[in-house]
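Recall the central idea of this unit: under ordinary conditions, the amino acid sequence of a chain determines the structure it adopts. In this exercise we apply that idea directly, starting from the sequence alone.
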Amino acid sequence: MLGFTAFGMLLAPSSALVGGTRPNETIPIHLAELAAFGFVLGSVSLAIYGRGGMPLVFLTFVLTVILDADHLPAYLGYSETIRPAHSLVFIVAALAVTTIMIKALDIELVMASSFMGHLAVDTGLFAPLSPLSFQYYQLDPYRIDFAVGAVLCALAAGLVLRTRTKSEEVGGTQGGA
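Accordingly, the structure predicted from this sequence is:
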């Protein structure tokens, strides 16, 4: 994520390097909101999969919050774009890498759920095609859409994991007999 942020900072015209940070007093509240929604999304997956899906809760929680690590350069005093990794380009790239490296649809769905969940909590401007385009759009009108997408992906993650686990149990039973 920080590599993606640095890449965006290199590609961005100086006019796009306007990203700032939230007022310090609002950061703990915002992180708590992100964490809470990440926990809710993970719990949705858990409700579909069952108790064995606790890693989904933890992963969704962490991924929902950690997306804000793209603000680190701004906190260190560097000019950057607004929300550099809060872009569709970032999530597509992250999903492509995950697909190649891990090949687990449930994890990919958790990533998509966490990303959309994060955007559902955020407000203000973002560049949905960063670092290909730094045209900023207001995020607020899409928050409900992102929340619905996040919940649907969380449900799908739980379902995929449950289906895969049952398939492995059936295959393991037959193979051991």
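Residues 2-7+27-165 form one domain.
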